[in-house]
Write a structure and sequence with these properties.
The chain is mainly beta. Helices cover about 10% and strands about 45% of the residues.
């Protein structure tokens, strides 16, 4: 799955940051992310941390999140590329609808919410692994 995430220009953020996702339980799911500015140019994200959080409801505290990932190993930070990987262990107990967000904290200390929405986990048709 691929995402293009904006980190500047609040009008674009309001328009473009709602992504509803569908994933499979007991599977490895990878979100390929490209962080871009309001001119559609890549943002250098060297030294950044990406925060991926899944909750049952918006009023839940971060400490009650169902899943939290802090990504500091970036695919190609000079080109604004990163991957968020949810392993089969991460998704094993997830089934149904949740809410999520993706934030980035740049090396300058600036923090942006780049994506948010509903994330739905569905069972796979088969359970075969060999």
């Amino acid at each position: 799955m691929k995402l293009f995430l904006y980190v500047t220009d609040e009008k674009k953020l309001e328009i473009n940051n709602n992504y509803d996702l569908i994933m499979r339980t007991n599977n490895t799911n990878v979100l390929d992310c490209w962080f871009i500015d309001d001119d559609d140019d890549s943002i250098v994200i060297t030294g950044a941390t990406i925060f991926f959080t899944i909750k049952s409801k918006t009023t839940d505290l971060d400490t009650a999140a169902i899943l939290k990932k802090d990504i500091t190993t970036l695919t190609d930070s000079a080109a604004g590329e990163a991957k968020i990987t949810l392993t089969s262990t991460d998704t094993a107990s997830l089934l149904g609808n949740y809410i999520y967000d993706i934030k980035i904290k740049l090396s300058t200390g600036e923090i942006y919410t780049c994506a948010e929405g509903t994330i739905t986990f569905r069972k796979s048709l088969s359970t075969r692994t060999s």
